[in-house]
Write a structure and sequence with these properties.
40% of the residues lie in helices and 16% in strands. Strand 4, helix 4 and strand 5 form a beta-alpha-beta unit. Helix 2 packs parallel to helix 3 and helix 7 packs across helix 9.
């Protein structure tokens, strides 16, 4: 009989979901159940409830989200349903089944007007629909399941899916020059590092080496850069002759406003949960090696 604790991962075809899938073989003490948005659309509330009734998992990692930031401006209702209401339903279902709930949120809950890394209790003030919908998900998770762990992260990339790193590599191979904004400041997050962090939190609490401490935590790789500097580092790693030109945000208008400054203070996750952070350049090099090999 299989008595391994079950870990359900929603949104398993996304960047973080795929990275968790890659790591699953290193955590054989758990039985992983990976659910794509086709298999488990989290905004199908009856399906979610029925599934949990049958499986009764020990943990749920919610990687499912509406993430198309610009499109969210014209699909507000859908964004709020998936990123807000559905998160609340998941959190409540987890509470009912005594399932530990881990939810992924975003730096976009802040307005970007700061000039010093945001702590978890810094006032939120999203400036686009995506950020507002993710903030609603945080609020519902905490309200309906006070035992939830919420991880805010930023500038996520991976060897899987669509992201800034893969787009830059493609453009640098196609063009002689590209323009990248240099007045939006933040910290990249390699999804593989975030996946490892989540599983370490779970395994530490399971083994007794750490406690499950609910609440909001910030997580990214170490380092503070602009998108332009991010692109320059990608260029150096792949040894591209492509010229990277810095431009202001005003030179690259988008339907959704982006925060100018979205650096997260990661002190809490390090001190409370014992998580060590990796340098953004080291993680970027590892990811690019996977992409181009």
């Amino acid at each position: 009989m299989n008595n391994r604790p079950k870990i359900v991962v929603t949104g398993s075809n996304g960047q973080l979901g795929k990275e968790l899938c890659e790591l699953a073989s290193s955590y054989l003490q758990y039985e992983f159940i990976f659910l794509s948005k086709e298999e488990m659309p989290i905004n199908n509330f009856e399906l979610v409830r029925n599934f949990f009734d049958g499986i009764k998992p020990a943990y749920c990692i919610n990687c499912a989200a509406y993430t198309v930031v610009d499109k969210a401006e014209s699909e507000k209702e859908l964004a709020f349903q998936i990123n807000g209401e559905a998160v609340g339903v998941l959190a409540a279902v987890c509470k009912a089944h005594q399932t530990k709930f881990v939810h992924i949120s975003t730096d976009y809950v802040f307005n970007g007007e700061g000039n010093y890394p945001y702590t978890e209790n810094f006032p939120t003030d999203p400036i686009n629909v995506y950020g507002a919908s993710k903030l609603e998900g945080e609020k519902q998770a905490i309200q309906l399941n006070a035992d939830s762990i919420i991880i805010r992260t930023s500038w996520v990339y991976s060897s899987f899916g669509k992201n800034f790193v893969k787009t830059m590599i493609r453009l640098m191979n196609e063009k002689d020059s590209i323009s990248v904004v240099n007045d939006q400041i933040g910290s990249p997050t390699y999804a593989a590092d975030l996946a490892e962090t989540i599983l370490m939190i779970i395994s530490n609490t399971r083994s007794g080496n750490g406690k499950w401490v609910p609440g909001i935590y910030n997580y990214s790789n170490e380092g503070v850069i602009s998108w332009f500097e991010f692109a320059e580092e990608i260029k150096d790693i792949i040894n591209s002759p492509c010229e990277v030109k810095p431009i202001p945000t005003s030179g690259y208008p988008t339907p959704a406003k982006r925060p100018a400054y979205s650096v997260l203070d990661k002190t809490k996750i390090q001190e409370t949960l014992g998580i060590q952070l990796k340098d953004w350049k080291e993680s970027l090099a590892i990811c690019i090696e996977k992409i181009i090999s």
